[in-house]
Amino acid sequence: MYFTFSHQKVLQCFLSTVTLSLCAATKLLFSSLIDLLLLSCLLQTIGTGAYGVVSSARRRDNGQQVAIKKISNAFEVVTNAKRTLRELKILKHFKHDNIIIVHLLNEAHLTLTFPIDLHQIIHSAQTLTPEHTRYFLYQLLRGLKYVHSANVIHRDLKPSNLLVNENCELKIGDFGMARGLSSHPEESHSFMTEYVATRWYRAPELLLSLNHYTLAIDLWSVGCIFAEMLGRKQLFPGKHYVHQLQLILAVLGTPPEGLIGAIRADRVRSYVQSLPSQLAMPLAKLYPQAEPQALDLLGAMLRFDPRERISVTQALEHPYLS
C-alpha cells in the first residue's frame, strides 16, 4: 500500500519516491520499485510533514535500518510537483560537505544519506555542550555560504532539516522550498504565498509582507536554530500568525518606524502601529549560561531589518567561530 502506483504513473515514480539511509556512509542503490520492496521491510512511521511521510525500514539483506520517504501526491498537486522538481534540480548541482547528497539512478529512484536530525538531538536528554553548538553552527553557516554563493535562498531552515551523523557532521537537507534570487519581479507574490514552512523560523519580513526578500531570510532562521541549541527549546514557537509576531516583538521590541512604513498590507501595518511600544529583551536574560560572543552573534542574526542582519560570510568571521 505504501508504494502503490497506477500503471500510468510507474514511469514517474522517480519524483514520488525518495530513499534515505540513516547511516551517512551507506548508499542504497535500487534499480526499481520491486528491488526497493524486496530489500526493505517497513517497520513504522517516524515522521510526517506537509509533503510526505517518512517510515523506518530494515534492509532484508544485511539488517541495516533505513528510512523511506514518500512524497505525497507528487503529480496530483502542482505545488508538490514543483517542490520536488525544484529540490532535484538544485541538489543535482550542489556538491558540498555540509549539504545532503542525492544520487539519481536510472531515472527510477534517488537515494541520499539520512542520519539523525538536529531537532532530535536538541530535544533529547543527550548532552549538548557549547563545543557541540559551536561546531553545528559553524557547519550550518559553511553549507549556507555555499548555497548563498549560488544566489539561492533555502527558505526552510529548521533543526529537522539539518542532518547529523555519529561524528557530529552536519548536512543541510530539504531544498524543496529553495528559490534563486534571479526570479522575475512579478514572481514576488508567489514567493511569499508559497512560503508555508514552519512559522517558528520565519523571518519578520515574511510575516510583515515587506516588499523585498533577500538572503537575510536564511540568517534569521539560523539565528532561531542557534537560540534553540543554546536554550534547548524553540525561541519563537508561535501558535498562529499573530502569536508569532507577538513573541518576536517581546524579544526584539518595537520595529523601527522605517520598517513599519514598508509593510505592504494595510491591516498588518495598522496592527503593528496599534501595539504599545516595547523595549528589546536582553538576550543574556534568555540565555544566562551563553558566552558573550555567542549572544553577540545571535543578536546580529536576529535583527528586524534584514538590511542590518549579519551575512553568512560575516557570521563565519565572527569571533565566536574564529
UniProtKB/TrEMBL annotation:
GO terms for molecular function: ATP binding; protein serine/threonine kinase activity. Its cofactor is Mg(2+). Residues 40-321 form the Protein kinase domain. ATP binds at residue 70. Keywords: ATP-binding, Kinase, Nucleotide-binding, Serine/threonine-protein kinase, Transferase. Pfam families: Pkinase (PF00069). InterPro entries: Kinase-like_dom_sf, MAPK, Prot_kinase_dom, Protein_kinase_ATP_BS, Ser/Thr_kinase_AS. SMART domains: S_TKc. Signal peptide: none annotated. Belongs to the protein kinase superfamily. This is Mitogen-activated protein kinase 7. It comes from Seriola lalandi dorsalis.
